[in-house]
Amino acid sequence: MTVDFSFKRAPTYRLATIRWKGPWSDAKIHAQFRRILKWAKREGVKTGRWVFTEPADRTWEVGLEVKGPKRGGRGIRLKALPASRVATVEFDPDVVSPRVIYHGLNDWLRWRKKEREVKSVGMYREVYSGDPWSDRRAASHVRIEIVVRP
Which of 59, 131, 143, 145 has the fewest CB atoms found within 10 Å of its own CB? Predict the structure, then answer.
């Protein structure tokens, strides 16, 4: 598998989200995704990509892309991530360690800043095409996006 960093234009994501503070917990992340999925099924909302972010230190946010008009409820908020320029990489975490990808991407962006291709670097997000716990294809194609300002 070839892994390379690039700049792309990410689409607008309209997400149903849950945010919380606390230590990292894969089980908690999975549980919150399931909670949103359960809400979406109950409300008859079509879902798309699965998005995970860390908007602040030890603050976590999970979101499912929703299609069609809907309102949140019971701790689930709807929000839109605007279309933006991102530094991105897609990889298989079973082949290449996420730690290597994150360090490589951060170093690559640091050099882009030194060469004045990028003014600032924003929040990162992990984007999956489906449920990474049950869909093997979604788990093997993780896309990391970091918002950048040219």
Answer: 59
